[in-house]
Amino acid sequence: MESRSLQPLLLVVNPVAGRCLGKKYLADIVSALTERGFLMTVYVSKARGDSARFVTEHGRSFCRIVCVGGDGTLNETVTGMLTGGIDVPLGYISAGSTNVFADSHHLSERPVRAAADAAADRVLFFDAGQFSDRYFAYVAAFGLFSCLSFTTPQTLKNRLGHTAYLLDGLRDLAQIHPEHVCITAGGIVHEGDYLFGAVCNATSLARTFEFPAGTVDMSDGQFEVILIRVPETALELQETVAALRTQNYAASRLIDFFHAENLRAECSPALEWTLDGEPASGRSEIDIRCLPLALRLVCP
Fold it and tell me: Judging by beta carbons within 10 Å of its beta carbon (0-12, 13-18, 19+), is residue 31 exposed, middle or buried?
């Protein structure tokens, strides 16, 4: 194949994500993409935030962007593309500890296979989210388990995957306090003391629980929103756990589950949020907007 026919592709790599699969398989990933007609530029991230900056500044020079890493790497790549107004196909080679986004979109967990898939011609549009002046690919969350992706030690995540989040969360359960949050969506107010809350566009969250079948469409211009109030009795805790396990959220009065295009959250500015597992500074009022069909994902 002559070099003039190669299409320029930016490969964003987080070498320490998950079990360092991006670093381990980098040569094979580059080879798989090159063999399928792409001229590679590889950017290896060094610190949090630099991948987003690089994509914003240089992404327009490429006809496709592919990222290798966990959901945090995906978040930075998506942030760079949306910040820079870069409208090119996005490929994702999951190499993190949980890879919720890859699961939701049925992407291969094998890096070399995922690289071949990222070179495919089939592209699907999907929604993204805006959290005040930041962006997310599939979830903005607060409360129990939501901050564990960046507080759980990387070595523990590498060994145990999503189980590490559960173990680390249970260890700190006694230190977690309910958060008073008021969320307004579609003219309806949801207010209370919540143990956990998520505004998401995914079929599951950290593999701890899955949303009911048929309730999630990642290209419908709406979020799925789940809010879990604090159980006050052992019976309420049992009912809530059972409702989450069976995906019958109506069985617990402590679970609010609904769909929304746009939301406003009013809460303490000290409340910690995460966007695709990355930390986000809190504020007293937060506007969360669905960005319909904002990104094009390359799918097998």
Answer: middle
Asked if 268 and 194 touch (Cβ cutoff 8 Å), the reply is no
The Cα 177–Cα 104 span in angstroms is 30
Q: Yes or no: say if 128 and 135 are a contact pair by the CB < 8 Å rule.
A: yes
User: Residue range 100-126: average pLDDT?
Assistant: 91
Provide the 3-class DSSP secondary structure of residue 201: coil
| Tokens (6 digits) for 9 | 């592709």
Angle separating helix axes 71-83 and 50-58, nearest 10 degrees: 40
Residues 230-287 have pLDDT tens digits of 888 888 888 888 888 888 999 999 999 999 999 999 999 999 899 998 889 889 999 9
- Distance of alpha carbon 8 from alpha carbon 34, whole angstroms: 10
169 within 8 A of 228, measured Cβ to Cβ = no
Report how far residue 22's alpha carbon sits from residue 67's, in angstroms, rounded to the nearest whole number. Answer: 9
Q: What is the rounded distance in angstroms from the CA atom of residue 64 to the CA atom of residue 127?
A: 18
Residue 273, strand partner residues: 142, 280
Identify any residues that bridge with 295 across adjacent strands, giving them in sequence order: 126
Rounded Cα distance, 217 and 183, in Å: 22
Q: CA–CA separation, 126 vs 137, rounded Å?
A: 9
Distances (CA, A) of 70 to 74, 79, 116, 150: 6, 14, 18, 12
C-alpha to C-alpha distance for 12 and 23, rounded to whole angstroms: 11
CA distance 34 to 1: 10
C-beta neighbour count of 229 within 10 angstroms: 20
Residue with tokens 């629980």: 209
